[in-house]
Amino acid sequence: MTEVEGKQRVCVTGAGGYLASWVIKFLVSKGYMVHGTVRDPGDMKNAHLTKLENASENLQLFKADLLDYEGLCAATDGCTGVFHVACPVPARSNVPNPEEYYCLGKTVAESEALEYAKSSEFSNITVCPSIIIGPPLQPTMNASSLFLLTLLKGGIESLENKARPVVDVRDVAEALLLAYEKPEAKGRYICTSYVLRMQDLVNKLKSLYPNYNYPKSFTAIEEDVKMSSEKLQNLGWKYRPLDETIVDAVKRYEESGFLSKD
Ligand SMILES: NC(=O)c1ccc[n+]([C@@H]2O[C@H](COP(=O)([O-])OP(=O)(O)OC[C@H]3O[C@@H](n4cnc5c(N)ncnc54)[C@H](OP(=O)(O)O)[C@@H]3O)[C@@H](O)[C@H]2O)c1
C-alpha cells in the first residue's frame, strides 16, 4: 500500500471489531490519523488496537455508542471521511429472529444513507461483503469467524450442503480503503470472492488439516448463489487465494487458543 500525503484524518466506528480492526491496521500503516470509536475504551477486547504498528502516533480512541449523537460528533470532528463499520450483529443479540432484525437494519441503514447523500454535500459509498472469514486481530470471536471455527472444532455429524459466498477480512478492508481513495468510486459495491459448497469447504479444510474432526455426512441442497464483485474489480480490487485465508485463519485460531492442535 502506498502512503497518503500529509495526515488525513478519518473516523472508523466499532474500532475493536473483526473487520474494523483490519481497516484501522491498514489506515494507520498508510499514515492516516484515525479516530476509532469503541463502546468501552478500557475493555481488554480493544487492547489489540493500541499494539498496531503506528497506532501510538496515528490512532485515537473515542468512547461512543451508535445511539450516542454527542459521542459520534466528537469522534468525527475534524475528519474528512467516516468508515462506518459498527453494527450490532446477531450472535450478540437476544431478540427473537435476530437474523431478520439484522438484515432489516442493514438494508434500511444503507438505503437511508444513500438517499441522504443525494441531497447533502457528503459522498456516500457502500461496500457489501458476503460472509467474512480470515484471521481475526481481536482477541474475541465474532459471528462470522465461528463459521470456519465450528467446522474445525468438531461435534457436527451432518451438515446441509449449502452454497456460501465468502471473502477474506483483509480483502474487505482493502475494498473499503479503495472505495474511499478512488475518486471515481460511486454507489454500492458487492464484495465477495468465492462461492463454496459446505462439502467442498470441508474437503479443502481436510486436505490442509487432516487431524481435525469434520462433519461426516452432507444433506443435498440444490439452491445456487450468484454474486459478483465485477464493479469492485473494475475499481482495481483483487482478492487473495482461498488457501491463504484458511491457513492464516487457522494459524490465528491456534495461536490464540480458539483451537487446540491436539
Ligand atoms: N462478518 C461478516 O460476515 C459480515 C458480512 C457482511 C457485512 N458485515 C458487516 O461488517 C461490519 C463489521 O462486522 P464484523 O464482522 O466486524 O462484526 P463484529 O466483530 O461483531 O464488530 C461489530 C462492531 O460493532 C460494534 N457495535 C455493535 N453495536 C454497537 C452499538 N450499539 N454502538 C457502537 N458500536 C456497536 C461492536 O462493538 P462492541 O465490541 O462494543 O460490541 C463491534 O466493534 C458490520 O457492519 C456487519 O454488518 C459483516
From TrEMBL:
Gene3D superfamilies: NAD(P)-binding Rossmann-like Domain
Keyword NADP: yes
Molecular function GO labels: oxidoreductase activity, acting on the CH-OH group of donors, NAD or NADP as acceptor
Keywords: NADP, Oxidoreductase
Domain NAD(P)-binding, chain residue ranges per copy: 12-102
InterPro entries: NAD(P)-bd_dom, NAD(P)-bd_dom_sf, NAD(P)_dehydrat-like
PANTHER family linked to this entry: NAD DEPENDENT EPIMERASE/DEHYDRATASE (PTHR10366), NAD-DEPENDENT EPIMERASE_DEHYDRATASE DOMAIN-CONTAINING PROTEIN (PTHR10366:SF831)
Protein name: NAD(P)-binding domain-containing protein
Organism: Quercus rubra (Northern red oak)
